[in-house]
DNA sequence: CGCATACTTTGATCAGGATCAAAGCAAGAT
DNA sequence: ATCTTGCTTTGATCCTGATCAAAGTATGCG
């Protein structure tokens, strides 16, 4: 299922699959749109935007990873979204960013200036429809995550995060997750803790426990191999045959 | 407050404020739409739909309260949404309900058959736009809730829930929350626990603690009065002047 | 090379909330 | 009036994950 054949109308990373917008899709038709669309890169660790900042663009992640998070006055932080390639950032119709966005790895965004993008949405209903679908998907993901945060044990939380990253990594490479698959853990222990509502020590301990139990194999601290997917799924506490949105 | 002046173009409860759709808005123009739109009532405790069921309608809450929730195989339950009047239920473009929907109180829904509704969305872009805005709001709410679930203490969680209900109750009556305001707690201790990722005993203890501390005044078990809103806000752990989406 | 920095692991102890158990309370049914 | 049912409160104890502390590891740099 790796369609290595590049479809010019659908570059696979840009969520706005409409020829009037994505120049990776139809580069030659788009010179006149350079003023509404541009690429922007960030280094690992750099903030993209802070909660409350005016946000004059919307964007989609082309390469790299960013996090969406919220921080309380006393420093407690909760990550509320993990932005991987093809994910969308932004709020048509909103003035301010509701959450912090930070680049975790080096990051490339495909940005659209907000006003012209909104105009385009008005004149091209299919963009709004696609955005609605993406937003509904994100909402479902967020709600699935609420179950993880509210009801799962530390061990189940770690397993759930590994499964999400495994699934998304597989999807990114246009294949299905399978036994023996390997992937890079893109997050520090602290970032995982912020995602899971745990402390970094607990994350470290549970990862060690999963390693000792043979559920995962670690090469170094970041490279993960899953010898038996079913085994990992059973550690998540999820229904084994449950439909997944991620 | 009871806006007894009924605006025929905007009934205030139906999110689809478009004259072609909401018969409460333009009852006389809509006879021919009876086959796509209908009201349906549920008794307290009745399920509206189970996760995985085919969903052949979308709806908005007219009166009453429903919950969106997820349950694990072993019975652990997490509520992922609280549906109050004017909230929308459903997924244009989706076959199956992703979560359980249960009526908490007696409930009236304003339902639209899915297929004709989707057709209508296609022909009336403003509906899609409105739905996108509502979905983005819900997504923000879900993400705010992730902070509550992941990082707040039991006491902060209770205070946060009370604030949300207070805000939404005030909004429903078209006024601002203010000191001394009273409202009905529409949820059992168990339902609150499911919303907050706690046990019902912890909910009970923390409510007692807030009562003893004078943050809230209880008349019976469900009627709540907030003598000092700022005091309650400070118990939530939130930034006092933080912008709120709810 | 030694040192600094950032991240991770591991250990010891503590505490918040879960669990188990029982009793209180209100409303409706018999 | 008594019983039943469903919800809530309160108490005693336990356990998971937080907190505090220190050591281990990798990488880059002067």
Give an overview in words:
The structure is a homodimer of 246-residue chains. With 246 residues, the first copy, chain A, is of the alpha+beta class. Chain A has 2 domains: 27-146, Jelly Rolls, CATH 2.60.120; 153-236, Arc Repressor Mutant, subunit A (Orthogonal Bundle), CATH 1.10.10.10. In chain A, 35% of the residues lie in helices and 21% in strands. Chain A has 6 helices and 11 strands. In chain A, the strands form 3 sheets. The first copy, chain A, has a 4-stranded antiparallel beta sheet. Chain A is globular. At the A-B interface, strand 5 and helix 2 of A face strand 5 and helix 2 of B. The first copy, chain A, binds a DNA duplex (30 and 30 nucleotides) through helix 5.
Q: Which CATH-level-2 architecture of the largest domain in chain A?
A: Sandwich
* Order of secondary-structure elements of chain A: EEEEEEEEHHHEHHEEH
CATH superfamily of the largest domain in chain A: Jelly Rolls
Tally of individual domains of chain A: 2
Relative helix content of chain A:
25-40%
Count of DSSP strands of chain A: 11
C-alpha end-to-end distance of chain A = 18 Å
- Which structural class matches the secondary elements of chain A? alpha+beta
Strand order of the largest sheet of chain A: 1-8-3-6
The rough form of chain A would be described as: globular
CATH domain class name of the largest domain in chain A: Mainly Beta
Beta fraction of the residues of chain A?
Answer: 15-25%
- Return the CATH topology of the largest domain in chain A: Jelly Rolls
């Amino acid at each position: 299922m790796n369609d290595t054949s590049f479809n010019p109308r659908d570059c696979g990373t840009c969520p706005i699959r409409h020829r009037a917008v994505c120049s990776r899709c139809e580069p030659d038709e788009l010179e006149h749109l350079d003023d509404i669309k541009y690429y922007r890169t960030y280094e690992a660790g750099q903030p993209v935007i802070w909660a409350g900042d005016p946000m004059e663009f919307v964007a989609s992640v082309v390469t790299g990873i960013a996090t969406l998070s919220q921080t309380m006055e006393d420093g407690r932080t909760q990550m509320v979204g993990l932005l991987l390639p093809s994910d969308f950032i932004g709020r048509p119709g909103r003035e301010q960013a509701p959450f912090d966005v930070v680049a975790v790895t080096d990051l490339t965004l495909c940005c659209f200036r907000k006003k012209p993008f909104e105009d385009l949405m008005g004149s091209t209903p299919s963009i709004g429809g696609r955005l609605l679908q993406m937003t509904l998907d994100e909402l479902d993901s967020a709600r699935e995550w609420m179950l993880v945060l509210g009801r799962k044990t530390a061990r189940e939380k770690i397993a759930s995060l590994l499964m999400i990253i495994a699934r998304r990594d597989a999807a990114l490479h246009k294949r299905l997750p399978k036994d023996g698959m390997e992937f890079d853990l893109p997050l520090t222990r602290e970032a995982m803790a912020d995602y899971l509502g745990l402390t970094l020590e607990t994350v470290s301990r549970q990862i060690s426990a999963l390693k000792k139990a043979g559920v995962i194999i670690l090469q170094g601290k970041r490279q993960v191999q899953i010898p038996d997917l079913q085994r990992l799924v059973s550690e998540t506490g999820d229904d084994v045959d449950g439909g997944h949105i991620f």
